[in-house]
Amino acid sequence: MGENILFDVEKHAVLTGVFGRAAERAAGEYGLKALAAAIVSYGRQRGDRMRRRALRDGRERNYETYLAYGELSIPSEPGDYSVRSRRPVYVNCCHCCLWALAWKKFGMERYGKVYCDYVDFSLVQGFSADMVMLVETAIGRGDEVCAFVNVGYQMTDEAERRLAGLRADLGDRYKRDFGYHCGHLLNSFDRILGAVLGADYGKVREEALLEFAQIYSEEAVNALEREAQRDFDEI
């Protein structure tokens, strides 16, 4: 049966790093732009799944629904998150980013920055083209804190109560584990990096997964390949 592979934030971050490094080796700065395109696609597809679940449940497409319908379940400690501003615009902050810790651990900060530049903005746009969430600062860019500015949204007392109620109602119904998210990321690289880099992508993929196997194991790569075969449009 082999070892039981635990996918987590670190492996998700490292996957971005190994593909970013291999893409840059193959195509220089253009390789990083190709990586950005794949991250945009990954974020938009995640956001679109959230949108379609919310519509199926009869929810409005607004910031409260977006904040409640996220797929990630991230380990955290008291003090990891805070609210910088409730009005006139809601700004929420993260003080400990597990992705940034992983990129620093493996010397992958250059590629992590690409992820931070594009993923959250694309995620919100995938949920609703009329909504904009700006990543004002990000630990993965070298800043002290991640600050997310939810343009056009105020967190009133009533909004806070509605959001808490919605989260309680949903529970973990739409959360997905990191095996799913790592598989989705690889699937996005195969689709978008493959399309952009063309014939160069085969070598990029081989080098990236070899490095991933060297950091973790061949079994981890095999498990990742299996996860990537899912239908990531399915809700």
Q: What overall geometry do the principal axes of the alpha carbons give?
A: globular
Radius of gyration: 18 Å
Please provide the count of β strands.
Answer: 4
Oligomer: single chain
Q: With helices defined by DSSP (H or I, 4 residues minimum), what is the helix count?
A: 9
State the distance separating the first and last CA atoms. 29 Å
Average pLDDT level = 96
What structural class do helix, strand and pairing data support? alpha+beta
What share of the residues lie within helices? Answer: 55-70%
Q: Main sheet: which strands, in order across?
A: 1-2-4-3
Ranges where pLDDT stays below 50 over 5 or more residues in a row are none
Helix and strand element order = HHHEEHHEEHHHH
Largest sheet geometry = 4 strands, antiparallel
Strand content bin = 5-15%
